[in-house]
Amino acid sequence: MEIKTINADMLAKMFLAGAQNIEAKKEYINELNVFPVPDGDTGTNMSMTIMSAAKEVRALDNPGMKELSKAISGGSLRGARGNSGVILSQLLRGFTKSIQDETEIDAAGIAAACIRAKETAYKAVMKPKEGTILTVARGIAEKAEELAFETDDLAEIFPKILDHAQEVLNQTPEMLPVLKEAGVVDSGGQGLLEVLRGAYDAFLGKEIDYSSIEPSAAPSASAVRKAPMEETDIKFGYCTEFIILTGREFSEQEEQDFKAYLESIGDSIVCVADDEVVKVHVHTNDPGLAIQKALTYGQLTRMKIDNMREEHHERVIQEAEKLAAQEKVKKQEKKERKKTGFIAVSIGEGMNEIFREIGVDYIIEGGQTMNPSTDDMLQAIDEVNADTIFILPNNKNIVLAANQARDLTRDKDIIVIPTRTVPQGITAVISFSPEEDVDTNEQMMLEAIQTVKTGQVTYAVRDTRIGEKEIHEGDIMGIGDEGILSVGSSISETSKELLEKLVTEDSELISIYYGEDISEEEAERFVSEVEEAYPDLDVDAHRGGQPIYYYVMSVE
What GO molecular function annotations does the UniProt record carry, in alphabetical order (predicted)? Predict the structure, then answer.
């Protein structure tokens, strides 16, 4: 049977099915990662990115193409994590920009949307590399354009696009030697193919289980955990959550007025405005008052009211109160607008404290194990009251999300210093001079981070081969800026071997940050051995408290 167009309803089903499929296949995609470190892998990042959009779509009631496009684009942009997630969000952004004003999409419309998706994603990456998800996206766009000239039957076009995407994916090892060496295809390209396969299943009318995609909830939902609490501690009995669809920009004055009203009837308040959507959470004894007030600003959706005295075991209370307290502290800390502020991505109590001591205003908890989303970046930007904000991603897989947050910010000047490691981030902040202008400081920081060589020691989570190094699960790896430099069974010996390859005759300083799995005694012993091996160098040691990495070291 010929099918020449798809409408918004079908597109929504296809998108949700694509999201569901990559969620189901994420561990398989993770296994394709060449680098065997225990990190936030490609499959996880892509799944979390598209799931953020899928939840927005699930919350819509019979949307048209414009509403659907906005939910897909906005949800994926804000939820984007890791480089693969950011690229996926840009593909979705380009695709939806092309179709948002249509009521139905035909073969030519599909082709145009695929081309725009490819172009948008390539523009988002400073130095596009072939053999990646970008290559697969380009192959899809070219095939869709070719087929649109041959037939208008989507039932004929879609399987051919899928077949061609698989062919392109199979070629990625020939484009990237590291893939060929490891005997795998590109994980990001595989993730994109899984999204398309899921979408095609929905197009064919196959039964899809959407139960894992919960509709997007109020902002507390993602942050709330559950913990026991005595009923007597509950001052306000109803945990109330909803979203206001304003249909226009929610002004800062309106946000302040609404928050003030909510404070008069309850506590544990979270109120976050994003374009035409306002996410609200409040604890109150009269949810109706909150709802009545909210209705003066627009339509309500995703309303949820829990009786906390009945469900007092839920941690939602504890966490919401914590969030509210943090908001209060932040409000108190907000002073006069500064000229310059700093945001750093960090993890580990010791690392965080170092950043605070050198003047970083806001720390985003995250890194290798959990790449912060674009939305995490935007929230941090909102909290830093400064004209110019420098963002230090401190991980190569977070730079794109930081850039995306920069591009989405209108009222502040955002500068992303592309730090790939925490030591680079520390050096960048130390290099800042308040007497110099913004451009000069940016240049100084960029130059400073080039002088820092970083080594990180962790364990392998899978067997692989990289270059001449055979790596087995459980091996200790010493990773430098350009790849794996040492492999062994001893943390101390592998770390010392790594240092040998970082230190040169021009080196002056070795900085060592020991992680949460290294005791103080072990760290002191290791530092002593380093000092003995390099008597002419200054050795600076700190408790970093970071997970995953036994040692993070830098040489300058």
Answer: glycerone kinase activity
- Total domain count, the chain: 4
Percent of the chain with pLDDT over 90: 53
- Domain holding 432, by residue range, is 335-449
Q: Is 268 helix (H, G, I), strand (E, B) or coil?
A: strand
* 6-7 vs 538-543, strand pairing mode: unpaired
Per-residue pLDDT tens over the stretch 422-431: 999 999 999 9
Report the 3 state secondary structure along 303-357.
Answer: EEEEECCCCCCCCHHHHHHHHHHHHHHHHHHCCCCEEEEEEEEECCHHHHHHHHH
Residues 483-515: pLDDT tens digits?
A: 889 999 999 999 999 999 999 989 999 999 999
Angle at 448 between CA 483 and CA 377, to 5 degrees: 75
- Tell me, yes or no, whether 373 and 480 share the same domain: no
Residues 6 or more apart whose Cβ sits within 8 Å of residue 5? 104, 105, 106, 154
Residues 469 and 343 in one domain: no
- 405, two tokens: 């947050």
Query: Is position 139 within any domain?
Result: yes
Domain match, 49 and 123 both:
yes
Q: Does the CA dihedral 194-199-200-202 come out positive or negative?
A: positive
Nearest Cα neighbor of 427 from 259, 555, 245, 336 is 555
* Residue finishing a domain among 203, 230, 254: 203
464 pLDDT higher than 90: no
